[in-house]
Amino acid sequence: MDSDLYPDLAAAGSLAAALQQLAAELGVDLTVVPIDGGSPVTAGIATPVAGRKPLSVYIGATSRWFSVSGWGQGIELITGATPDLADVVRAGAAWAQDTGLVELRARLPFLHSSARAEAHERGPAAVVELQWRTMREQATEASDFPGFGALVDAAHAEPMLRQLYVFSSHWTLGFSSCTGFPFRDVVGIAPGHKGSAYLVMKRPHGEILGETATAEEAVALAVSHLPTGLGPAVEGTADRNA
Fold first, then answer.
1. Residue 44: in which H helix or E strand, if any?
2. pTM for the structure as a whole
3. How far is CA 235 from the centre of its chain?
4. Ranges of the chain whose pLDDT falls below 50
């Protein structure tokens, strides 16, 4: 690390040690854990809150910045950057206390959260609804690709797909039974374009299950391949440890 930019870290020996020392000086209860193999320029701030991973902290290379990122259930919930290490200590303490995202941003304006992250706090149904709204807006803007718009409309009209988390990869729609990444894909559909067929796949860009001439037919075929008893998307990821 650059001792001119980070004299406090250089004196402590590492970012983790500097965080622990400053927390003690401020009277803040903080548990610092290693990340990235225990690099001296990275650190994590642990939390007992279920569904939240340790708050990751990194330093800037060419100027004094501490970047933080907090993930939970496969979604980045909070992020930000500040030159003040004390801000990081306060953010870590609030993160560990299950402070809500809106309150976190109010207390520490250097922090930011996305609409998707804030929907996550309202539950998986809110995340799914927001994602569908975003996807339909994207389809409206893609007026030069009518096949994509037709596919999004047809998929949204089908209750079995509308209850799932929808995402796109190179215009192919994927449907997941969980809202966090890595997704638990249950089916994928590629839109027809300039006369080509719609493709229904086990997962986006995966094994092809069939081809159809219309978006509605593709949706019906996709639904016929959904797992039996599939319900609404749940929070979390395909990797239970994520």
1. strand 42-45
2. 0.82
3. 11
4. 241-242
